[in-house]
Structure formats: structure tokens, C-alpha cells
Amino acid sequence: MCLAIPGKIVELDATSANQAVVDVVGVRRKVDLGLLQDESIQPGDWVLIHVGFAMSKISEADAAEQMRILAILGESEAAMQEVRGYGLEDEKHLNRQQGSGP
Amino acid sequence: MKYVDEFRAPELIAKAGEEIRRLADPARHYRIMEVCGGHTHAIYRFGLKDLLPSNVELIHGPGCPVCVLPMGRIDDGLSLTAKPDFIFAAFGDMMRVPGTHGSPLEYKARGMDVRIVYSPSDALKLARLNPDKHVMFFAIGFETTAPSTALTILRAKLEGLHNFSVFCNHVTIIPAIRAILDSPDMRLDGFVGPGHVSTVIGCRPYEWIAKDEGKPVVVSGFEPLDILQSIVMLLRQLRDGVATVENQYKRVVPWDGNRAALRAMAEVFELRSYFEWRGLGFISQSALKIRSVYAEWDAEQRFVVPGVRVTDPKAAQCGEVLKGVLKPSQCKLFGRECTPETPVGALMVSSEGSCAAQYNYQHHRPVSIANAVAL
């Protein structure tokens, strides 16, 4: 629940001020920047992500340390699963479940 | 000490351990509460208790959102899955939490449309993808998570998306700390303050604990060294007879919190006059509800919710454990009827719950041995 996942801003969304693509250990997903609207966020910045929203800007060293701590806590798997789940990139999978889909 | 070699800077950790032993007055017994479930998990995972002298005791606090949610709320939320064309979306943490008639996962097995989402904005996306259905996001979490839910509701309004709602169970940490301090059977000397909640609310909301209650608070990071340093900082204050709020986690937590997040919360939510916490009972102004301006996106205002109340199983002593009166292993059900595979109480469900944390890291051994080594 309290997972805070470090990611690097790769690209800001040209069409939406609130979206950016982040890279989390090679996995790229969209996250929401709405909670950092008071800060200037640029590609190359590192952020802590919680439930799909970037919640604070951190240093690269702290990002590496945070990833290590998730690994030692045995939560890096859960963190990566969470990141892969963002944006329902796997929409087909989600919509394939019983009782759903058009 | 078996996990020490995995730590960053083991020599600093050893030093922090020495400093704690030096600062701890042998004539005193210190009871320090770590409020956050993430800290509880880390403390067990790293075996940090092994580094502390026996008179420095860590008490596990209420900061696990899954654990403090009363079963009636789960029943209420799941009751809506009986509606036609209804999708119940929640974080993975919620899926195995038992309700009276089963967990969300069991509802799914019975054919209800239950989905795991990793972000509230993904629940919103589900609503976009399923315009002929209603998507309800079952929201849980402290102030770490509440701003994301708030922004998602604001987005739903902006988009004019009407087949989406939130069943709001967001809670706030400060009233829970107050309830624990007011509890007559509690005696605490200080608090390791939550890290990620404080990213949002900052450090000021803890000042009353120091000023009015005379208890030091140190907002802490999650590394072993962070937690030990925070204990050092607390013991220094206790030695000097002072009580202030200190921020050990400055690299992530700004003193004033995240203003954008606080704005989003204030826009969408207001305080409930009271809310029931598992184990702690009813606490006034301890949870958030959706303002009536956003009633359309509030499942409780939009639908008829039964308002179920369920008392915890009598044999389970979740309340005492949650308040730190009992250690997890002192509960009669711990490790017997109640295990992470078949949880009776919610503290066994989440990895941040103190019972699951203790079970997973200390309780692979037979009960008698684990009890014998319990600190």
C-alpha cells in the first residue's frame, strides 16, 4: 500500500500537462504529474511514484536507494507488477475477464 | 542480525545500534510507536529489533490502511456488485481481505465483476472503456493515497464521465494518533512518524504531539539506517527532556508537505464527523468523505449502501495488537487459526500488518520457539 516506486521522467506528454512517461528499471509507463504541478518537472528528473501518481521529486541517488530497499523488502516484484499495470496497457487482459467486455 | 549484511553502510548501522544502547537509560523502559505499516514491515524484514536493547520496545501503530478498515465497509462496498453492469475496482491489497460473505476475490470467483487496478486513474480508464457499465473504485489509504483519488474525481468531472464513482474509505493519520494517545491502556514515549504520509501533509500536523503531549516525533525514511537514526534522534530528545518534531527523511519529506496534493484533497474531500476503525472503534473526524459538489462521483451518495456493522471475531485480538497493548504473537489465534494464507483478522492480510510481518519473518519456526525468542 505504501509502495513508493522511483522512476525517471523520460518524456512529458505534449497533449496533457498532467502526464509523463517514466522509466522504472526499463519498464515505461505513463504516470500522472498532477500532484507535482507546483514544481517544474523535466525529462531526466527522478520522482517517487505512488499508485500511478508522481508524489515527490527525488535525487538519482535516492532513487537507486529506494529501488534497493524495495528489493530487500521483497517488494520489487510487487512494484514492477504495479508499474506494468499502470495505464491498463494490458487493456485486453482486463477486459477479457468474465462478465465484462463489450 | 542475520539481515545486516544486506544493508547499505553496515558500519553506520552498527554505530547507530551502539548509539542507541549508549543513549538508552537502563533504568527506563522506552516504548516507541512506529505509526506506518511500511516501517513495521521494514523493522521485521531487517530484524531491527535484534539491534535494540531490551528496554527499547517498538510498538506497531495503526498505519496500515487495509488493517484498520472495518469489515462492514468491505461488505457495503461489495454489496453493490449485485447491481447489473457494475464493475468493482480496487487495489490488489484489498482482494484477499475477508468480508462477511467472502473477499473481493471470492466475489469475483462467483461471477461478480471485480478488477484489480494499480491506480485510481486506471479505474477511471476502465469507466472510459466500458461506457455501458458503472465502475466503482473502492478507495483505501491514508493521506499518501487520498490526493490521487481526489485528482481522479476532479478528472472525472472535467471529462464529464458519469459512469464512475468512488467508495471512499480514506482515513487521516492524526486523529488515529490522538485516539491512541487518549487510550488509557497506552503509555508511549515517542513516535517514529510516517514517511510517505508526511510527503503529503508535511511535519507541522505532528507539532501538537510534541507541544501538548510532550512526546517527540521523528519523521523517518524506510531504510534500516533511517529507522535506527530516527530512534537515536528520539532517544536524544528523551535524554534531554525535550519534545519536538524532527524530520529525518528530509530527502523526500518537505516540512510543509505537498501543497498541490493538499489542495486537491481540500477541494474534493471534507472530514466525516466520525468513522469506525478496526480495533480502535469510532474516531471523530478521522476520515474523508466526498463533498456534495462531487456527489455524482460518490458511490455512497449515489447508491443505497446498507451500512453494515460487523464486530470483529471475539477470539481475534486485533484491537489490542493494533493499539500495541498485545504483541501479535500474544493473540490466541496468531499462527494457528489466523495465518497469512487464512487470515481471520486484517492485520494478517497485508504485508504491512504487524501480524503478517511478524509471521512472515519470525514465525516460520514452531510457535513455542518463536515465542521463546520474541523480544
Summarize it:
The complex is a heterodimer of chains A (102) and B (375). Chain A is α+β, with helices and mostly antiparallel strands.
Oligomer: heterodimer
Major β-sheet of chain A, in short?
5 strands, antiparallel
* CATH architecture assignment of chain A: Roll
The largest sheet of chain B is: 5 strands, parallel
Determine the structural class of chain A based on helices, strands and strand pairing: alpha+beta
- Report the CATH architecture of the largest domain in chain B: 3-Layer(aba) Sandwich
Determine the number of helices of chain B (DSSP H or I, runs of at least 4 residues): 16
CATH topology of chain A: SH3 type barrels
Could you give me the name of the CATH homologous superfamily of the largest domain in chain B?
A: HypD, alpha/beta domain 1
Strand order of the largest sheet of chain B: 2-1-7-8-9
Structural domains of chain A: how many: 1
Characterize the structure shown.
The complex is a heterodimer of chains A (102) and B (375). Chain A is α+β, with helices and mostly antiparallel strands. Chain A is built from three helices and five strands, in the order E-E-E-E-E-H-H-H. A five-stranded antiparallel beta sheet of chain A has the order 3-2-1-4-5. Chain B is α/β, with parallel strands linked by helices. Helices cover 37% and strands 15% of the residues of chain B. In chain B, strand 11 and strand 12 form a beta hairpin. In chain B, helix 2 packs parallel to helix 15 and helix 7 packs across helix 12. The longest helix of chain B has 17 residues. The interface between A and B is large, with 42 and 61 residues.
Show the helix and strand layout.
The complex is a heterodimer of chains A (102) and B (375).
Chain A (H helix, E strand, L loop, with lengths): L4 E8 L6 E6 L2 E6 L13 E5 L2 E6 L1 H13 L3 H10 L5 H5 L7
Antiparallel strand pairs in A: 1-2, 1-4, 2-3, 4-5
Chain B lengths: L9 H14 L6 E7 H9 L10 E8 L1 H4 L2 H9 L6 E5 L13 H6 L4 E3 L3 H10 L4 E6 L6 H14 L4 E5 L4 H10 L7 E4 L1 H7 L5 H5 L5 E3 L4 H17 L4 E3 L11 H10 E3 L2 E4 L3 E4 L3 E3 L8 H4 L15 H5 L31 H9 L4 H7 L2
Parallel strand pairs in B: 1-2, 1-7, 3-4, 3-5, 5-6, 7-8, 8-9
Antiparallel strand pairs in B: 10-13, 11-12
Helix pairs in contact in B: 1-11, 2-15, 7-12
